[in-house]
Task: inverse folding
């Protein structure tokens, strides 16, 4: 098809370069010259968009393509922003999908020009311009460096073209909106599904430990008072500086389902001779991420618009229970596995607590009091105006 066969209002590239040329030049240039100029600029735009693009691993490609298909079906990047990591993953998938399509556009565009198939050139150029416009809605990497991570739910997502949600899914935000016995409800959902993660979820809900600590392996046993004792190897631990090398969290038997499940598992292991010399049962998972995904899946029934249940929800709920029961900073830090008591202030809130105290603990080292040290006080003092 020749360029003169196209409708007057559908010249190749839809006259995308007309605004760059003075009006007098249009009267002198032939249609083919304008096509050539517009094609050169369009191809340069594609090359600039693909500059530095690298093919990710095959594993990442499979994940990216699933996410990209969801975005193309109408989901926005904002729907993936329940956490910073998932948003960046969706952002990477969006960029990868657009760049792969742009590579196909570039090949088809070159073939169309070589064959003088201007109808194909026109259709491909429209697709390419749409993809280039889509890529402009995603900030390049240098914007990520300019934006503070703490402003992620605000400024950064606005740069990406997505309005922030009115109630972002902070880890302790919205705990008061969850049902009173939501932890037992999650365990019940896992038990109903006969999940292999039943015991790890139960110990997570009972002891307020980290998912990665279950991946490292922890031991549970029943003491003389009927309480469940969880011996936990600390994570995020730098001996003598941060974190506890180990701690023992004692979970009082308050009739909750998670404690009942653990005690039944310990008794079954005793009958089968699977307990260690201390009468403890080891609980371990292969992947902390897999455990987190299982908690989110079985927690869908109790999640609310204000709080989507995750593995760390149990940790914040345990801290909330301690705050609501009037536990000291040192006691809360010991349960959570912190070496300094300042860190535990970021977990939970008294309003979300049950008012009952079922967690006590002892740890490898005494907790350091930092609430009154000069550095801590300096951080808390407002800057003079």
Result:
């Amino acid at each position: 098809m020749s360029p003169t066969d196209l409708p007057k209002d559908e010249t190749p590239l839809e006259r995308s370069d007309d605004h760059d040329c003075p009006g007098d030049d249009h009267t002198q240039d032939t249609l083919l010259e304008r096509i050539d100029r517009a094609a050169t600029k369009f191809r340069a735009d594609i090359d600039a968009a693909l500059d530095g693009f690298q093919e990710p691993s095959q594993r990442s490609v499979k994940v990216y393509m699933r996410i990209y298909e969801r975005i193309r079906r109408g989901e926005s990047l904002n729907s993936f922003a329940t956490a910073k990591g998932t948003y960046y993953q969706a952002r990477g998938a969006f960029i990868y999908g657009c760049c792969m399509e742009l590579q196909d556009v570039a090949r088809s565009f070159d073939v169309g020009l070589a064959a003088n198939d201007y109808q194909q050139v026109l259709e491909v150029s429209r697709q390419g311009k749409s993809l280039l416009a889509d890529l402009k809605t995603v900030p390049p990497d240098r914007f990520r460096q300019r934006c503070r991570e703490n402003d992620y739910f605000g400024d950064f997502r606005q740069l990406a073209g997505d309005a922030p949600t009115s109630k972002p899914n902070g880890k302790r935000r919205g705990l008061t909106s969850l049902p009173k016995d939501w932890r037992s409800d999650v365990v019940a959902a896992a038990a109903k599904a006969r999940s292999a993660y039943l015991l790890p979820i139960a110990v997570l809900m009972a002891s307020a430990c980290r998912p990665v600590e279950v991946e490292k392996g922890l031991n549970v046993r029943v003491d003389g008072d009927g309480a469940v004792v969880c011996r936990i190897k600390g994570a995020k631990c730098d001996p003598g500086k941060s974190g506890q090398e180990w701690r023992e969290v004692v979970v009082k038997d308050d009739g909750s389902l998670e404690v009942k499940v653990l005690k039944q598992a310990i008794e079954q292991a005793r009958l089968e001779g699977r307990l260690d010399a201390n009468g403890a049962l080891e609980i371990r998972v292969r992947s902390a991420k897999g455990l987190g995904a299982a908690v989110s899946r079985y927690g869908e029934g109790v999640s609310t618009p204000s709080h989507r249940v995750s593995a760390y929800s149990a940790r914040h709920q345990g801290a909330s229970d301690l705050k609501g029961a009037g536990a000291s900073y040192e006691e809360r830090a010991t349960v959570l596995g912190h070496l300094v008591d300042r860190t535990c202030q970021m977990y939970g809130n008294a309003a979300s607590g049950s008012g009952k105290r079922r967690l006590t603990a002892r740890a490898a080292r005494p907790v350091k009091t930092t609430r009154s040290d000069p550095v801590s006080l300096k951080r808390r003092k407002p800057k003079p105006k």
The mean pLDDT is 80.
